[in-house]
Write a structure and sequence with these properties.
Length: 306
C-alpha cells in the first residue's frame, strides 16, 4: 500500500509532465492551424492527377486490340506508313479529320465500311475509338511474283490457290494450313467481299500463315487472265465439273475455290481453263470450302507423285 501511495503521489506531482513538455498538445494544434491538412490535400491532388494521367496514357497506348488499330491519329498513321490494312470501319456521319483519312485510304484502295457507333464500341472494347478503326494484317501480304519466285527457287511446278469470295476466317486459316502441308506456293484472295488476314485466320492456320505467301488482288478474274498468260493452267472447283481424278493436274496449276455460300462465281468459272468436281456418294451434295480445298490440293500432290 505504501508503494502505491508513493506512486500516486509522484503522478500527482508531475501529471503528464514528460509528455506535455516533450510533445505539447498545443504544438500539434498550432501546426494544424498553420497548415490545416495541407500535406494530405496536396498528396490527394497529386495522386488524383497521376491517376488521371496514367488512365489517359493507358487509353492512348491501348489503341491496338487483336489486330485492330483504333482512334483517328493511330489509324491515320497506319494509313500513311503503308501498313497492311484489310479494311477501315467508320461510324456513320463522319466529319472533320476522319474524312481526310478516308480520302487517303481510298487512294490506296483500302476497303471502307460504315457501321453504327455501338458496333465500334463492342469491337474495340472501348469508347475511345473516336469513330474509326482499322483491321490490320498480322503478317504482310505478298505479291504473286513472290510465289512464282518461290516455286523456281524450289525447282517445282507452280502450285497456287485462288479463293473467290471466302468470308469465314476459320476456313481461310484452314486452307492456308492445308496449302502449307500440300506444298502450295501461295494463296490469292480478293480485296473486296472476302475475309483478309486477321488474328483469327492466323490462329486457325496453326502458324502456317508465317510460311505460306498470301496475296490480295483487286480482281480475281483479271488475276486468272494474268496467270494464264504466265503459262499456268487455272481450274475451278465446282459441282458441275469433270471428276477431278480424270483431269490432269500436273504441271503449273492454280485451283480456284469458291466461297461458303455461292461457290465460284459465274464469270470467274468461265474465265478458268477447266472445271473439276469431287464425286459425292452421300446424301449431302457438297463439302465445307476448306475441306474441299484440302481434298483438291492433295489430289494435285497425288498426281505429282510426291
Amino acid at each position: 500500500m505504501e508503494k502505491k501511495k508513493q506512486f500516486n503521489k509522484d503522478r500527482q506531482g508531475k501529471p503528464f509532465a514528460g509528455k506535455a513538455k516533450d510533445k505539447p498538445f498545443a504544438s500539434k494544434s498550432k501546426d494544424r492551424e498553420d497548415k490545416p491538412f495541407a500535406g494530405k490535400s496536396k498528396d490527394r491532388e497529386d495522386r488524383s492527377f497521376a491517376s488521371r494521367t496514367r488512365d489517359k496514357d493507358f487509353h492512348e497506348e491501348r489503341r491496338e486490340v487483336e489486330g485492330i488499330v483504333y482512334g483517328r491519329n493511330p489509324v491515320a498513321e497506319a494509313v500513311k506508313s503503308g501498313r497492311q490494312i484489310d479494311k477501315i470501319v467508320v461510324a456513320k456521319e463522319t466529319e472533320g479529320s476522319i474524312n481526310k483519312i478516308l480520302g487517303e485510304a481510298k487512294e490506296k484502295g483500302i476497303q471502307i465500311r460504315f457501321v453504327d457507333r455501338a458496333a465500334l464500341d463492342k469491337t474495340c472494347q472501348s469508347k475511345s475509338h473516336q469513330g474509326i478503326m482499322a483491321h490490320v494484317a498480322p503478317v504482310a501480304y505478298r505479291e504473286i511474283e513472290d510465289m512464282i519466285a518461290l516455286a523456281k527457287e524450289k525447282d517445282e511446278d507452280i502450285f497456287l490457290i485462288l479463293l473467290d469470295g471466302m468470308e469465314d476466317p476459320h476456313n481461310l486459316g484452314a486452307i492456308i494450313r492445308s496449302a502449307d502441308a500440300a506444298g502450295a506456293h501461295g494463296v490469292i484472295i480478293p480485296n473486296r467481299r472476302a475475309v483478309g488476314l486477321t488474328e483469327t485466320v492466323a490462329k486457325a492456320s496453326a502458324g502456317a500463315i508465317e510460311y505460306v505467301p498470301v496475296a490480295k488482288v483487286a480482281n480475281i478474274t483479271q488475276t486468272i487472265e494474268k496467270l494464264k498468260k504466265m503459262g499456268i493452267w487455272v481450274g475451278a472447283v465446282d459441282m458441275d465439273g469433270e471428276e477431278f481424278t480424270k483431269r490432269d493436274l500436273k504441271g503449273n496449276i492454280a485451283l480456284v475455290i469458291g466461297g461458303e455460300g455461292q461457290g465460284v462465281g459465274k464469270l470467274v468459272k468461265e474465265t478458268c481453263d477447266f472445271v473439276v468436281s469431287m464425286p459425292m456418294k452421300g446424301k449431302v451434295t457438297s463439302l465445307n470450302a476448306s475441306n474441299a480445298a484440302a481434298v483438291m490440293m492433295y489430289e494435285v500432290v497425288r498426281q505429282r507423285g510426291v
